[in-house]
Fold this protein.
Amino acid sequence: MKKTDIHLLNDLQRREIRETAYNEVSNEHSFFCVCGKLCSGFHESSCGKFRAKVEKRFLSKCEAEIRRLGLS
């Protein structure tokens, strides 16, 4: 899937999928971030490694949703 295929999902679907991906990654790392530092809400929002992992999970979930809906 290409990032451009994400336009097949509406804004609400993308927002919900991104929120789910963020929460899943955050819950997997309750004390220490992906990068190894102590987790906090501020750190998660500014950590490049954390955001990259969320983006990867988001794209994976979008791909699965597009396949599930038969849009591609």
